[in-house]
Amino acid sequence: MEFREIGGTGLRTSLLGFGGFHLLEIPQKKAEKLLNKYLDAGGNYLETAASYGDGESERKIGASVSNRRNEYILVSKIGARDKESARRQIEDSLRNLRTDHLDILLMHGVASPEDFESVLNGPYQAALEAQAAGKVNHIGGSMHGWPGGLIEALNRGYFEVVMSTVNYYDRCNYPEIEGILLPLARDKGAGVILMKPIADGFLYRNADAAFRYAFGKPVSVVVTGMNNEQMLADNLRRAEGFVPMSGEEEAQLLASAPELSGYVCRQCGKCSCPYGIDIMEIFAAEGYYDRQMARGDVNDTADYALMERLRFWFDNRKLGIERYNKLEKQGGACNKCGLCVPMCPYHIDIPYKLSLADYKLAGRNIY
Prior knowledge:
There is one protein chain. By secondary structure, this protein is of the alpha/beta class. It has two domains: 3-252, Alpha-Beta Barrel (TIM Barrel); 279-361, no CATH class. It contains 14 helices and ten strands. The protein has helices at 28-40, 56-65, 83-97, 113-120, 123-132, 148-155, 176-188, 207-215, 229-240, 247-256, 279-290, 301-310, 317-325, 350-361; strands spanning 3-5, 12-14, 16-19, 45-47, 73-78, 102-107, 136-142, 161-165, 191-195, 221-225. The chain starts with a strand and ends in a 6-residue tail after the last helix. The relative contact order is 0.10. The model has no long low-confidence stretch (mean pLDDT 96).
């Protein structure tokens, strides 16, 4: 398996990382077997969080592989927003994981510049003290969805490592991740941890392509949750056989991926409205709001149920509405002339999508 540097930390990680959230779904015996199989196969990155099952994920990792501590990079996250609570979480994590140090400690869910400020005023100070005591080697931050908090941190010279959602679906909803955050991390010498390569499971039918897309991004490690042996074997196969996508292959994936279908705006900038409606900006606000998952049709019950579960997963609704309210002309101004429709290379019914986006973002009481 390929190994990559984690920014300027001096750490080298396997391409495939093991995420600890889904260890909550299986008993200890199965978790132990999976974790050891992953290490036996050459993986060396284990990640969890204090909040996963109130420490249960950490305890499972500690009970399963602490006897192999020198074989893996160990990462956990703290969600506290005051110094004393953060200090306690760090101590609890070390105890749960049966270790005397974390290789990387992440500030969990740094969702906005304002949230980054709250982290600086307490948890970050606790992390620095733990680092000085040899309990934490490197400090970073994580987020879900919009990367504003991590961009703020990097621009101000904080965080050696950042963890972000990156997948071919959410690049359409949060283009700032690949357009701003990843290049900024490279310029600042920060490591990038990629999470959610299959978009919280939404891309399960196209997992080979999703992992290949993720592995090809300028990141240090691709972290995914695994709760059974077949999933582990499949992901190891994908990592060990990884060949980067060409630009043409990536473009073809974005054009033909079934999850994007004829609804999700790829933010390509090729459409325009003769009446001054900013089509792409409206769809960008919709991407923030619900990841463009409520589409006004139900063709597959399982997919619909999954989208209903995931569309507010990142809880960026407020950001989407704020972005929409700044527009001079909103989706309701569309007269359905249809002049924009032939412009879309992805065959999106733009007037229909504008009306549905307006229903969501303007709070209409009926659609």
